[in-house]
Amino acid sequence: MTTTGSTALSLTEDRARWTALVVLCVGMLMIILDSTVVNVALPSIQRDLGFSQPDLAWVVNAYLITFGGLLLLAGRLGDLVGRKRVFIVGLVLFTMASLLCGLAQSQAMLIAARFAQGVGGALTSAVILGMVVTMFPEPREQAKAIGVYSFVAAAGASLGLLLGGVVTQSINWHWIFFINLPIGVVTGVLAARVVARDGEVPGLHRGVDILGAALVTSALMLAVYTIVKAGAYGWGSVHTLALGAGALALLIAFVARESTAKDPLIPLRMFRSRNVSGANLVQLLMVASLFGMFFLGVLFMQHVLGYSAIGTGFAFLPVSLGIGVFSLGVSARLINRFGAKATLLPGLALLATGLGLLARAPVSAGYGTDLLPSMILLGAGAGLSFPSLMMLSMSGATPSDSGLASGLVNTTVQVGGALGLALLATLSSTRTAHLLATGASRASALTGGYHLAWVISASIAAAALLIGARVLRSVPHRADAAAATSPPEEQDQLANNAVYAEAT
Question: Which terminus of the chain has fewer Cβ atoms in its 10 Å neighbourhood, N or C?
Fold first, then answer.
């Protein structure tokens, strides 16, 4: 009787965990969708509000900068005051900011509201991965749960293009923000009910490194501003070099602050693990290449090939399907059998190849012959890469630091996206202006700019592959197998042994 009751309780708890995972992933999906749903609507926003192409990037970067700059602080707050509480507060702020975005009638209002959205998005998403890792400590279940999370995070980016196209063409671009309102409200209500309460938390008296957060956010904002303005002033100009030096000085000040602060925003000890530091660097480079692909791919399809907003969304659908198939159906099994590194490297190779093929698309590109192969390779590559990087990035996190580690993972995604997008959009615009000045047609000049950006994207992805091959280490499979078959009380020790071996 006791055994039956215990089994029933176990099944109930297990169902509650997976239900909570679904709710958390819906919240994450809303955040991720919003980072790309805007892309398809960019031409419409540009026409309505009068943005130039370099300034148009700020519609995306305003969100990415605050998002990326505040993720570490948000993750730390989750560890100190409770991840569920931070998740719900961020959800409320994000939903309210979405309303302001939808009501925007000027460039300034839209960009300001996007900054506010970034704050809410940081609070919401920074703690999700930490909650997932805490809810699913057993290695095989954790791999499956992270696979679901990775699918939502990666596939949501490309699904946002389809949703943005449908909404923009069917109604108008304002509604890509209004659709967040019912989703945010429902997710907040469900999260309050089904997500388990946090255990005992230290509280804010442990200290929050506000200065560190201000330094890293300022460094990121100045770095993106420097890249955007380099197209106007020149990469070697005094203006650009001075701004770049200021961004570097702020970054150095941040590192110095973290090495001396009593309660740092990010303890530098986390980077002692080669897999944690290496995986975050690889992820930063990988996302830098992908964000530029989405942003410039939309502009190429609409401005050069004449696709409609809906057509553009459907053109990116193979990326979503590929991510879904590989991150949910393939990557978890491959990671469990061969290890995260062995799964990651082929994924990065596929990404670099897909971006390289995209750089060959002509002005009169046909979808089936010139674009579809790239979309398939990019979907498969991202589907293999994201779950592997999530596993490696979280490999050195203790339960008390899981929120911080989760924030670091998301920070590298957003920082990579912001810097990559600013760099590629600026270089593309500069190349297009040069070609126009030499007498090229508008379509040829635009295509030449996009080609340059995609060649650089492929090179960045290739660099990520080389760094991953040289820096990352595989966790011995025997430890994984033993963890999967040993009693629960031994699994934590086996996992800790694997992490220690990985860090040393």
Answer: N
Contact 258, 267 (CB under 8 A): yes
Classify each residue of 433-451 as buried b or exposed e, where b means 16 or more C-beta atoms within 10 Å of its C-beta. eebbeeeeeeebbbbbbbb
Tell me, yes or no, whether 479 lies in a domain.
no
Does 303 lie in the same domain as 227? no
Residues 243, 316 within the same domain: no
| Chain centroid, CA 418 distance in Å | 10
Residue at 496 is within a domain: no
Q: DSSP letters of 210-250?
A: HHHHHHHHHHHHHHHHHHHHHHHH-TTSHHHHHHHHHHHHH
The CA dihedral of 125, 155, 181, 66, to the nearest 10 degrees, is: 40
The Cα 19–Cα 21 span in angstroms is 5
Q: What is the pLDDT of residues 177-229, one digit of tens each?
A: 888 888 889 888 888 887 777 666 656 656 667 788 788 778 877 887 787 67
Asked if residue 441 is part of any domain, the answer here is yes
Identify the band that residue 253 occupies on the pLDDT scale cut at 50, 70 and 90. very high
* Together in a domain, 134 and 275: yes
Total tally of structural domains belonging to the chain: 2
Query: Quick check: 421 and 61 in contact, CB under 8 A?
Result: yes
Element (H, E) at 262: none
pTM: 0.69
Three-state SS annotation for 298-309: HHHHHHHCCCCH
Q: Is 203 left (phi over 0), alpha (psi -120 to 50) or beta?
A: left
User: 227 lies in a domain?
Assistant: yes
**Torsion angle of the four alpha carbons 86, 89, 93, 96, in this order, in degrees rounded to the nearest 10:** 150
Assess whether 234 and 158 both reside in one domain.
Answer: no
**Whole-number CA gyration radius for the chain:** 22
Residue 244 and residue 347 in one domain: no
Q: Which domain range does residue 219 map to?
A: 209-264
